[in-house]
Amino acid sequence: MNTRDPYEKTFPAVPAATRGRGFAHTWWGHAWLRALEDSALDGTQVKQGRRYARSGAVGAVSVRPGGLTAVVRDPDGTAHRTDVLIQEFTEAEWDRLLDLAAAEAGHIAALLDREVPPELAEDAAAAGVELLPGIGDLDPRCDCGEWDHCPHTAALCYQVARLLDQDPFVLLLLRGRGEREVVAELAERSAAEADAASEAGADADARQTPADEGIPAAEVFAAGALLPALPPLPELPPVPGQPPTLDTETGAEPELDVDAVGFLAQAAAAEARRRLAEALAPGHADRAPAAPLTLSEDAVRLTAEAGDFRVRSRLAAATGRSRAELELAVRAWGFGAAPGLAALEDDRTPDRSELSRARAALAAAWADEEAPVLRRVRARWTQEGTGRQLRLGRDGRWWPFRREGGQWVPSGPSAADPGSALEADPAP
């Protein structure tokens, strides 16, 4: 780091990189590269710059408010002074950005953890502060004589994408303020908001009638020693319990399906045992409770357990599905329960933050030369020329599908990485 100027940082040169994954792995690193790739008039120059960056041609990078500087060498060793300029924020823009960041404790924690929350960037953009550069925001300057992006400025931008991945405060420095100043400002604003909230709470308490002071903690602990010990946890039965038989001397009501009632009783016993097993498992208290199933989801769960044709037919009719549709839903349930069913039946459009994270995951999953051609429609990415498709679940996981009999069917469990999900299911 350059100690003469707290608003300038110098990062050492990075050695040549082996061919493989892309330069950026975070969503904000990819946004930086999109600003370069979407702005350059000559894509050939950008590709050549990417090769320069991979070969280690970029020297030490100096980062300061409003610009980047580095020496970039041609393959023959010729050195070029290369700069990329970016607009600094005004004082008013900094005020809006810092107010937004300080308003959410999660934003501050994420920045200190070297992450940029997508929500912060979106809220800032809505307030007129574009944290990330867009088309035309990266202004190239190079002594090679090119007026647009040349291989040298492109190589510098690719190198800086690596730096941004590791430390998003590099982006804030380019916008005009160093890390120490930003952190100090956030702490000051956060403390001011906390004081204001505390004063408001005190005023509200003063307007209320005095509350019961409660019981001293020492008395509570002393009384606890007199209470009997809690009983031991129940043991998990080896198999679900058997419901009582419904064979009686009294005939069943005409509208009562005895076989269906027996199946529901057995399914309830199996579900009770499963829930007890979860409750007795280590760490159960630390896990968030699962969302309750909808009637449609529970019908698919029951169908997956039902062997009787009549029961399955009744469940299909009750959910408004055909037998074929219900069988497909059962297949999805087998791969991932309710999230797997949602991947099959949801036809949604992801919001901006979801799409940003999805693009970053897709770009990081394959090397530039190995990436498959994927065409997106809403939350579904179809690989051209194959019968394979990826679907993005609401939990951020990727579900593989394949084309069978003129329809898309689930073909495996989900994965956090889109490359793993797609490659786990070979092309049909």
Name the helix and strand elements from N-terminus to C-terminus, one letter apiece.
EHHEEEHHHEHHHHHHHHHEEEEEH
Strand order of the largest sheet: 1-2-3-4-5
Give the oligomer, counting copies of the same chain as homo and different chains as hetero.
single chain
- The N- to C-terminal Cα distance equals 54 Å
Our count of helices gives 15
Radius of gyration of CA atoms, rounded to a whole number: 30 Å
Content-based structural category: alpha+beta
Broad shape: globular
Low-confidence stretches: 1-5
- The pLDDT mean sits at 81
Strand-residue proportion: 5-15%
Helix fraction by DSSP (H/I, runs of at least 4): 40-55%
How can the largest sheet be summarized? 5 strands, antiparallel
> How many strand segments?
10
Supply the key terms.
single chain; 428 residues; alpha+beta; five-stranded antiparallel sheet; 10 strands; 11% strand; globular
Molecular structure report:
This protein is α+β, with helices and mostly antiparallel strands and 428 residues long. Helices cover 47% and strands 11% of the residues. It has 15 helices and 10 strands. The protein has a 5-stranded antiparallel β-sheet with strand order 1-2-3-4-5. The protein has a 5-stranded antiparallel β-sheet with strand order 6-7-8-9-10. Helix 1 crosses helix 14 (352-365), helix 2 packs across helix 6 and helix 3 crosses helix 8 (179-207).
Strand-helix topology:
Layout: E1 9-11, H1 27-39, H2 43-54, E2 61-64, E3 67-73, E4 79-85, H3 91-103, H4 105-112, H5 118-126, E5 139-142, H6 151-166, H7 169-174, H8 179-207, H9 217-224, H10 258-280, H11 295-305, H12 309-318, H13 323-345, H14 352-365, E6 374-377, E7 380-383, E8 388-392, E9 398-404, E10 407-410, H15 418-423
Helix pairs in contact: 1-6, 1-14, 2-6, 3-8, 11-12, 11-13
